[in-house]
Amino acid sequence: MQNRTAYSGGDGPAKVDLDTQLTAELASVVSAARRRATRDGDRQVDTAHLLHGLLEWDPAVRDAFDGGPQIARLLGYLVQRSIGYGLQWHGTVEDSGAVPLVTEAGVPGWSPAAAAALDGALDRAHARYATRASCLDLLAALVDDPESRAVEVLRRASVDTGRLAARLDRCGPGAS
Does domain 4-171 bear CATH number 1.25.40.20? Predict the structure, then answer.
């Protein structure tokens, strides 16, 4: 798997290359995650930032949860991140162990798990011969890393991540 998220750190031609691989909705999610990380004073965009953006920006992502009360709980946990829940994460690098720790020359501004999730979304899109990754692709990739912050938030909100992953696989990855 190549590291395509290395493009996301700057504003030059490489950033444009990554943007051409994302649906408009997913590009909005990525931008929202970057803004949230900056606003919260976090050093890196992590998987919880991405999950928060997905839930806010894409109705198809909310629908993937099958209408349960989990959406309100998830947003509640994510909103309190900077004032309570998630403070243990503040100032730390998210590294679930699923990918090697990023070095200085790696993916500036992204946690290793977030970078791996975006790569997973791109891989999922390419597996179905799509040219752009969608929000559902990213949600599926986030759920695939059981040690990520996003999955920790999902579990705390009583989301059965195995069931969610199966639902995403059954409905198939589609553009959202």
Answer: no
